[in-house]
Amino acid sequence: MRKRFSRLRDGLAKTRRAITEGIRGALGRGAGLDRAALDSIEETLIAADLGVETALHLIDGLRERFGASGAATEGGVREFLALEIEKALRAAERQGAQGEPGAPLVVMVAGVNGVGKTTTIGKLSRLHADEGRTVILAAADTFRAAASEQLSIWADRSDAQFVGGQLGGDAAAVAYDALDAAIARSADVLIVDTAGRLHTQKNLMQELVKVKRVLGKRLANAPHEVLLVIDANTGQNALSQASVFDEALGLTGLVLTKLDGTARGGIVVAIARELAIPVRFVGLGEAIDDIEPFDSAAFARGLLGVDGAPPETA
Ligand SMILES: Nc1nc2c(ncn2[C@@H]2O[C@H](COP(=O)(O)OP(=O)(O)O)[C@@H](O)[C@H]2O)c(=O)[nH]1
Ligand SMILES: [Mg+2]
C-alpha cells in the first residue's frame, strides 16, 4: 500500500511542485488573496493543464471562500483546491464494467500513436492475471509488423494468450476471431489492441467503429469497456482527442499514461470536469506494474500536496 501511494505521489511531483510554488508565490507578496494573487494562481493552474474553464471555476471558488477577508494561508488555499478538485473528479466516476457471467469481459483499447496503448494492455493483462483471470490479448493493430510482435511479448510477460492477424489484414476480422477464441476457450478477459490513429483521420476512426461493431455481433454488449489511452504530456489537445473518440466509440473510461515525469498532470481534472469521462487507470512508468487504478481523492491530494504522506525518500 505504502509503495503504491508513493508511486502516484512521485508521478505527480513535478505538477505538484509547479502548483504549490505558484500558490506560495501568489500569497508571498503579503497582500493575501487579492486580485493579482488570484490571477497568478489562475495562471499556475492553466500552466499545469487544468484547462481554462476548470481554472476559472476554481478561482471563483477561491474568491467566494476567502474573498471578503482576503486572509488566506497557503495551506488553506491548497486544502480548498484539493477538495474542489476531488469533487470534480468524483463527479465523473462511474462503475467499471462487469461483463456477463459465463462470457469473457471484452475491453477495447484505442488512442493516438505512441501514447502507450500496447504497454497499458500488458499492464492491465498482468492486473487481471494477478486476480486469477485468464486473459487473451488480440492484436487488431495490423498496420505495423512490430505491433503484433510487441503485443505478443506483453502476452508472454503477463501470462496471457495471444491472438494475432496478418500484416495489413482487416482489424475487425482479427477482433472477431479473437473473441471467437476467447469464447471457445472460456477466457475471462479479452483485451483488443488497435492501431494508433489521429482522431482527425476519418477513415481510420471508421475502422475503429467497425471493430467495435463486429465485437458486438459476436457477443451481445461487447465491448464492455472502451478505453482511450492518453499521454499526460499531450496538454489541452487531450480534450479534443477524448471528445472525438468518445463521439465515435462511446468511451467508458480513460487511461492516462506517462504521469511519471510530467508537469501537466492537471489534464486529468480538465477531462473529468469538462467531458465527464472517468479516468480508470494511470500509467506511472514503462514496467509491467507501473499502473494504478485511479483514485480521485489520492490524486487531488497528491496534486496539491495535502496528502500528508511521508517524504518519498523515507
Ligand atoms: N514513462 C512512461 N512511459 C510509458 C508509459 N506507458 C507507455 N510508455 C512508453 O511509451 C512508448 C510507446 O508505448 P506503446 O505502448 O508502444 O504505445 P502505443 O503506440 O500507443 O501502443 C513506449 O516507449 C513505452 O515504454 C508510462 O506510463 N510512463
Ligand atoms: Mg501499440
CATH homologous superfamily heading of the largest domain:
P-loop containing nucleotide triphosphate hydrolases
Q: Class by helix and strand content? A: alpha/beta
Q: Roughly what is the average pLDDT, rounded to an integer? A: 91
Biggest beta sheet attributes: 8 strands, mixed
Integer-rounded radius of gyration: 21 Å
Describe the 3D structure.
The chain is α/β, with parallel strands linked by helices. The chain folds into two domains: 2-91, Four Helix Bundle (Hemerythrin (Met), subunit A) (Up-down Bundle), CATH 1.20.120; 105-295, Rossmann fold (3-Layer(aba) Sandwich). Helices cover 51% and strands 13% of the residues. The chain has twelve helices and eight strands. The protein has helices at residues 2-11, 13-27, 35-47, 52-66, 74-91, 117-130, 145-157, 171-184, 202-218, 237-249, 267-275, 296-304; strands at residues 105-110, 135-140, 161-163, 189-194, 225-231, 253-257, 279-283, 291-293. The protein has an eight-stranded mixed β-sheet with strand order 3-2-4-1-5-6-7-8, with helices on both faces. Helix 2 packs antiparallel against helix 3, helix 5 (74-91) packs antiparallel against helix 12 (296-304) and helix 8 packs parallel to helix 9 (202-218). The model is unreliable at 310-314 (pLDDT under 50). It binds guanosine-5'-diphosphate (GDP) and magnesium ion. Guanosine-5'-diphosphate (GDP) binds at residues 111, 113-119, 196, 257-258, 260, 283-286, 290.
Topology, element by element:
Blueprint: H1 2-11, H2 13-27, H3 35-47, H4 52-66, H5 74-91, E1 105-110, H6 117-130, E2 135-140, H7 145-157, E3 161-163, H8 171-184, E4 189-194, H9 202-218, E5 225-231, H10 237-249, E6 253-257, H11 267-275, E7 279-283, E8 291-293, H12 296-304
Parallel strand pairs: 1-4, 1-5, 2-3, 2-4, 5-6, 6-7
Antiparallel strand pairs: 7-8
Helix pairs in contact: 2-3, 3-4, 4-5, 5-11, 5-12, 6-7, 8-9, 10-11
Bound molecules: guanosine-5'-diphosphate and magnesium ion.
